[in-house]
């Protein structure tokens, strides 16, 4: 490996390291500061997205069950006093993809489970539960406020794929909620406000919708799961998809634009509400909060203003998505929600979208074992990159053959770095060797390297798929629990990460032994790379470490083929020697010309600079 190949590797390593630190930086200090600020509030309360202090879900539900009839303290509104609350009951709506439990209290979707999936402990996979979720409409009547979460709903009609829940006010008017399966993990929702146009305050032409979910744990690595949870949202007339922070508490106020959808995104699953025509009312508030305990992963919160038109039957229609973060499934919705799958940005996303995902899906159609699929994917990628890899090998071979000449130049020039570099450039020109022959091909591989870094941890296809000793290729493979935590490393040992780091070390050592002049400092940096990779990747997806291990081993094989069957060192040496005999005029660079012009102005002979 020549010096420029080493520089190429170091550039990739530096960019890769910076990318890892940028996208997965440790924010424990920021979290601690946030915890201190939050501790000012009462331990039994939480700040909502509007900045008001509100009870936690569990406390709020207890207060609701114990509260007295609102009509006893509120003036008469023209609607009879709300009847005494009845015990909460649940209605079930189920198909092969979704199981919904709807509560009689508020007529809301209180629980969602996905029969096709399981949580990390093999329990049913829940997107949210009745105790830790709230879906409430607030209607401002003329003399009081009505909240749907305080009303009792009954089944008016039910079929295999739909259910209609209704609350009728004793003095006229009703609220009807209709849920129906719409395919692709979607549930259509229709709310009808009937004969309420004379009872709602005219100054308030909107209904406030509050949706809060305290998401249950679904994955093995709680820290990693928390770092991938956030609230996504998109405006109707925009191609951009935005989101709140993934690593700290955050909130956002949205005003003056049509909101297309809001998604509560966990690592591999999303609960989203979609407004087909876009909601135009201002004042949408979004927030995400992380608890100090492990009772749940994150608290998602959204407050949306829904317009009211004062009609005899005022209808609001939404669509829910309760399902996996599977790229093709989300793409079929045609609303841009597939952007919740973190495939990277710019060229990295393009590589994943148009190369990696299609190849992976094609292989998935023919093979069931994901370890084999990753192997075949690696072979295909390495096959596509074989020409840059060949250029790298040839460049390294040429630099190795030039090592005696480079050593001779180093002795002749002594400590004059400028003169040594000039002589080296002349040698490269005469020998027909490009100093960037090993560097540029290395950089060509960088987008694929980063694309894989984003693809494997985000691929739900690998979730809970076993291969060899790894029980789940979407998370780390632990062959030993240490019982204590090593800073920056973790409390376990990942075997695929060990194999990847070991193969990187052997590859580095082999190249160092056969390389041209490499100073000791550069060697130490190259040997440090496997150690850093061992630390960084110990808690990453085992499928990613497995891929990098395979890539290293295939590179070993490619280099052996190049050396044994393709590149003849003897002929290459003869070619270089023949090229060295040719006269080559080395034109000064623009920088060199500027130095000469400056020298002339100062009365210095420009020839002294060229020496």
Report on this model:
The longest helix is centred in the C-terminal third of the chain and has 25 residues, at 542-566. Helix 8 crosses helix 15 (542-566), helix 9 (403-413) packs antiparallel against helix 10 (417-431) and helix 13 (495-513) packs parallel to helix 15 (542-566). With 611 residues, the protein is an alpha+beta fold. The chain has 2 domains: 3-23 and 348-580, no CATH class; 41-71 and 80-342, Distorted Sandwich (Beta-galactosidase, Chain A, domain 5), CATH 2.70.98. It contains 18 helices and 23 strands.
Domain tally: 2
Mean pLDDT: 81
Number of helices: 18
| Name of the CATH first level of the largest domain | Mainly Beta
Please report which band the strand proportion falls in: under 5%, 5-15%, 15-25%, 25-35%, 35-45% or over 45%: 25-35%
The count of β-strands is: 23
Rounded to an integer in angstroms, the radius of gyration calculated over CA atoms is 32 Å
Percent helix: 25-40%
Q: Which ranges are low-confidence, i.e. pLDDT below 50, for 5 or more consecutive residues?
A: 26-56, 58-83
Q: Summarize the biggest pleated sheet.
A: 9 strands, antiparallel
CATH topology of the largest domain: Beta-galactosidase, Chain A, domain 5
């Amino acid at each position: 490996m020549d010096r420029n190949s080493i520089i190429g590797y170091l550039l990739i390593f530096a960019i890769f390291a910076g990318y890892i630190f940028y996208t997965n930086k440790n924010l424990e200090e920021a979290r601690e500061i946030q915890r201190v600020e939050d501790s000012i509030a009462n331990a039994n309360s939480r700040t909502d997205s509007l900045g008001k202090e509100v009870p936690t879900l569990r406390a709020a539900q207890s207060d609701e069950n114990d509260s007295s009839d609102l009509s006893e303290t509120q003036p008469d509104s023209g609607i009879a006093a709300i009847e005494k609350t009845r015990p909460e009951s649940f209605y079930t709506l189920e198909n092969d993809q979704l199981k919904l439990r709807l509560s009689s209290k508020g007529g809301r979707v209180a629980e969602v489970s996905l029969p096709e999936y399981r949580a990390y402990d093999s329990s049913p996979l829940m997107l949210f539960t009745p105790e830790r979720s709230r879906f409430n409409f607030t209607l401002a009547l003329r003399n009081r406020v009505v909240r749907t979460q305080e009303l009792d709903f009954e089944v008016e009609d039910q079929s295999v794929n739909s259910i209609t829940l209704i609350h009728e006010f004793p003095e006229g008017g009703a609220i009807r909620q209709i849920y129906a399966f719409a395919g692709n993990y979607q549930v259509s929702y229709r709310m009808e406000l009937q004969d309420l146009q004379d009872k709602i305050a005219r100054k308030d032409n909107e209904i406030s919708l509050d949706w809060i979910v305290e998401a249950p744990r679904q994955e093995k690595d709680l820290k990693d799961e928390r770092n991938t949870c956030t609230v996504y949202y998109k405006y109707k007339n925009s191609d951009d998809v935005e989101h709140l922070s993934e690593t700290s508490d955050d909130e956002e106020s949205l005003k003056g634009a049509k909101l297309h959808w809001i998604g509560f995104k966990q690592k591999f699953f999303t609960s989203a509400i979609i407004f087909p025509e876009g909601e135009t009312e201002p004042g949408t508030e979004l927030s995400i909060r992380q608890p100090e305990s492990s009772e749940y992963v994150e608290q998602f919160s959204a407050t949306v203003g829904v317009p009211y038109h004062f009609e005899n039957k005022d209808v609001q229609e939404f669509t829910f998505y309760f399902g996996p973060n599977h790229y093709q499934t989300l793409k079929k919705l045609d609303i841009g929600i597939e952007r919740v799958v973190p495939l990277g940005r710019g060229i990295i996303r393009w590589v994943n979208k148009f190369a990696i995902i299609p190849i992976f899906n094609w292989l998935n159609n023919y093979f069931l074992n994901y370890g084999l699929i990753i192997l075949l994917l690696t072979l295909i990628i390495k096959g596509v990159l074989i020409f840059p890899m060949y250029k790298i090998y040839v460049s390294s071979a040429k630099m190795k053959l030039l090592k005696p000449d480079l050593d001779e130049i180093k002795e002749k020039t002594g400590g004059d770095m400028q003169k040594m570099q000039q002589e080296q450039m002349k040698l490269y020109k005469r020998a027909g060797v490009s100093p960037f022959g090993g560097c540029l091909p290395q950089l060509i591989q960088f987008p694929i390297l980063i694309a894989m870094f984003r693809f494997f941890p985000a691929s739900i296809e690998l979730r809970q798929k076993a291969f060899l000793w790894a029980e789940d290729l979407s998370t780390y493979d632990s062959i030993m629990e240490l019982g204590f935590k090593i800073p920056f490393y973790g409390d376990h040992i990942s075997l695929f990460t060990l194999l990847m780091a070991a193969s990187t070390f052997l590859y580095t050592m082999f190249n160092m032994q056969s390389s041209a002049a490499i100073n000791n400092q550069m060697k130490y940096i190259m040997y440090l790379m496997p150690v850093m990779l061992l630390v960084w990747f110990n808690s990453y997806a085992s499928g990613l470490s497995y891929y990098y291990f395979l890539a290293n081993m295939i590179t070993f094989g490619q280099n052996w083929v190049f050396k044994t069957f393709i590149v003849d060192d003897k002929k290459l040496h003869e070619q270089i020697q023949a090229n060295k005999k040719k006269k080559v005029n080395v034109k000064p660079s623009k920088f060199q010309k500027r130095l000469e012009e400056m020298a002339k102005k100062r009365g210095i002979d420009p020839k002294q600079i060229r020496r």
